[in-house]
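Researcher: Here's the sequence for the chain we discussed earlier.
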Amino acid sequence: MSSYFDYIDTAALDKKLETEKFPFSKYLFWDTPIELIDKEKHKKSIIERVITKGFLEDFYILIKMYTSEEIACAIKKSRVLDKKSANFCSLYFNIPLNEINASSYYR
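Model: Thanks. This is the structure I predict for it:
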């Protein structure tokens, strides 16, 4: 089985990550000036937006930028994930669905 990441230019994304510029799609953060977003301070918000509204390229950058533990922690605490995003995260990051806070709204 091939990886989804075979269909995107990962080399260009890796180069983009090496720069100090904000690597995610600008449309994800339309409501905030990108220069004011701190990658550590706003980690939970970044993870939530990428999971719920990002492209595959954004997801690739996300998993390169943050550890699986950091992403899983943000996902478990999130209240904004929709049902499909919660199910995807449960499968991809191996998190029991009952540990994802947002999934309690869909029972």
